[in-house]
Amino acid sequence: MEQAVYHEWVPTGAFVKVAILAVAASIVFLLLILAAFLHPLNTEGLIGFGVSIVTLMFILILFLNFRGIKIQLSSEELIVDYGLFNHKSIRMDDIVSCNLVKASFRRFSGVGVRHGLDGSWAYTTSFGNAVEIVPKKGRTFVFSSNNPEKICQIINTKVHAHGP
């Protein structure tokens, strides 16, 4: 990618952080209960302890992987990364328009990597400000941003400068 015109980091929203913390705290509480009341630790207790530890590790790895969205915008392309495996690259030539939207529960049924009820794809960290990219071909793409106005201004200026 050539020199970035704009870049942004959008951390995971408070709702997701609180939900993950609640699940992790529940697992730690379960582990403490197992340790306190199962003396000597029998086979079922060991299995429960192991499953709880593995589940806790899985949740922490997911949280670290999806801790935020990285947005890079150059004069040639838009790149949006969400974790290790979710990478979206769209050439400026392939964009019809950029719009400001709200990432809503009604449209995406949650946060994260989502498929919208309208056929769109989304990378969202919270229910809030987002950018909607309408491509010439393919599905509409929505992603969370702290500054969607700036992103759309840059994209729409470049799209309109090249013409249809």
Question: In a nutshell, what does this entry contain?
Answer:
The chain is α+β, with helices and mostly antiparallel strands and 164 residues long.
Q: Give the amount of beta strand, in percent.
A: 25-35%
The shape is elongated
Low-confidence stretches: none
- Class by helix and strand content? alpha+beta
Give the full name of the CATH homologous superfamily of the largest domain: Pleckstrin-homology domain (PH domain)/Phosphotyrosine-binding domain (PTB)
CATH topology of the largest domain: PH-domain like
Helix count?
A: 4
Question: What is the H/E order?
Answer: EHHEEEEHEEEEH
Write a concise keyword list for the protein shown above.
164 residues; 2 domains; five-stranded mixed sheet; four-stranded antiparallel sheet; alpha+beta; PH-domain like
Structural topology:
Blueprint: E1 6-11, H1 14-37, H2 43-65, E2 68-73, E3 77-82, E4 86-91, E5 95-102, H3 105-108, E6 112-115, E7 121-124, E8 129-135, E9 141-144, H4 148-162
Parallel strand pairs: 7-9
Antiparallel strand pairs: 1-2, 2-3, 3-4, 5-8, 6-7, 8-9
Helix pairs in contact: 1-2
